[in-house]
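Apologies for my clumsy wording, but could you write out the amino acids of a protein and the tokens describing how it folds?
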Amino acid sequence: MDFEESARRRARHVTLFLDVDGVLNSFPVTGLRFLRERRRRVRAWHYELHFRPRIIRLLERLAERRQVDIVWLSTWSQRCRSELEPKFGFRNRYPIIPMPDDSYNRFANDPHTWWKAIAVEEWLAENSDARAIWIDDDLAAPVTRDYFSTKYAGRLLLIAPEFSRGLGEEHFEAIRAFSHPRFTPLSTVALRPRALVRLKPATRKPPASTKDSTRNIRERKNE
């Protein structure tokens, strides 16, 4: 594997911090919409949850193809593994960043107090060369969203689904684009023309002009 391919694989491999309510669960979904979106209902932690199996499959496909590492970041905390993974139909088990207290999401609009914001920022500091995706409906909170999108531009993709709809297929376009960065040559706009070097094949000569070719043929005939 050459250096460029190795760098490309490292860049594509990102950590995905995943919330539950407002992302996978959009309770309540009723009527024709429940049928149209092919949702299912389960009960966990004394609550009824309405989720989309297709979204679960799309997430696991990303993880199984080693495009993302899923990490639970939810107030469901340890119940993500004990209850939600089997009831949502996840085939794999994923690590958890547990909620450290009972503050839940009361401080979602304060990036210096909200426990999720603190956890993500600590991870970014400990993994200075890594990139991440954070999916949480509470990222709609303007102060927190502006703080992270400004400070970690290029390293962190923020996705804030609408609570009543949750994570949808359209969000996966942004996820794939972020986890599959396009590697392009150095921009010609940023370089002066004399700085651009074009390599020519060492074993091939440029084709002779029609006039030269005709002269060579005549010389060979006269020999």
User: Anything to note?
Assistant: The chain has eight helices and six strands.
